[in-house]
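Here is one chain, start to finish.
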Amino acid sequence: MSIVFKDVSYVYMPGTPFKQTALKKINFEIKKGEFVGIIGHTGSGKSTLVQHMNGLLKPSLGVVSVEDIDINGKGDAARVAKRKVGMVFQYPEHQLFEETVYDDIAFGPRNIGLDAEEIERRVRKALDFVGLDFNMFSGRSPFQLSGGQMRRIAIAGVVALEPEYLILDEPSAGLDPRGRETILDEIFKLHNSTGVTVILVSHNMEEVARFVDRLIVMHSGEISLDGEPRDIFRHSRDKLVQAGVDVPSVCTLLAELRGRGLPVEDIALTPEEATATIMAAMRRRDRC
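Its structure:
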């Protein structure tokens, strides 16, 4: 049960002077239940990559399959496979268009032919997931809400489809620190409670380090690195810099402290881990 790319290449505006190769023979698999981060510099191909996962873009060459079904094939099987993959674009509040919050979240479930009772169940569940009260928000216009609330409504609309794979392209872009933390905590909670596969596109190393269990680094339309974040941040900093990204700031801090003689061990991915690592190193030093 997975999303599989086999020799996938993609070219924008082929046959024109503006031809641009965005993906170059990509091969990888995302297994069900993973929480995957995709990072890379602007123009590295990360957004193009994820838009192939639910058929928004069709490969120039190669095959993308969801649970062994070519999603660019014809027939009901391909349509069903595409529906298993939900996508939240950057600034998803720009996708809102209905007169009420309820109708906006219900649009997808209605479009796949669910009955009214099931639609309401999903709207209630999705609003609860994003932390908004059904009675308070369902009848309101989404355009009268705050930016953070609009972002939550847009995410709820995708969650209401109950996808088995959830792609989020910079879901916290433009939010203040508290808003970013709230959105990402909700996504992490959904992953833990339902087992939904999450693919998170981000340029924020702290976000990636905190949440994902697998990291894919894109560079010039290719996969430069693919592995556990801790291993990549520990051993592949040169490749990360070459790809236009860097390790989380806590990793830089620990490297600086090691260089100054504090015996910090291993690598921390979050401020909490870094604090514990530094305190332990100070206690060891004091005992010497």
